[in-house]
Specification:
single chain, about 20% strand, 5 strands, globular, alpha/beta
Length: about 110
């Protein structure tokens, strides 16, 4: 697992491992990341389904309840295929934009 921290946002990448192992590593690393906004870059996975994305729902809900953003980046699954509780976008730049918008919403108590 590769972590790229920039300010209060951390981008998480993975190398050639299974999704299950990646999720296990993310859960173990989460205490170090819990105070940052998290972008999970899933581009190295060649096959992803909406079911695979739902595997991140628990950690996403936990992180969002702490008033932090959690965004998945993949172009293999459309945001329309997953519930609204989890953010999925096709590019890292869009993930950064979502975080910026969510920070503004939190600042305005929306």
């Amino acid at each position: 697992m590769i972590l790229d921290k920039n300010g209060n946002t951390t981008i998480v990448f993975q190398e050639n491992i299974s999704l299950k192992k990646f999720l296990e590593n993310l859960e173990k690393t989460y205490p170090k990341l819990k105070n940052d906004h998290i972008i999970v870059n899933l581009f190295s996975f060649t096959k992803l389904s909406a079911g695979d994305i739902l595997e991140f729902l628990h950690i996403s809900n936990t992180h969002r309840s702490a008033k932090k953003s959690f965004v998945l980046v993949t172009n293999k699954v459309s945001y329309e295929e997953v519930p609204d509780e989890i953010s999925v976008v096709p590019t890292v730049q869009e993930a950064k934009d979502i975080i910026m918008m969510e920070e503004i919403e939190r600042d305005l108590d929306l």
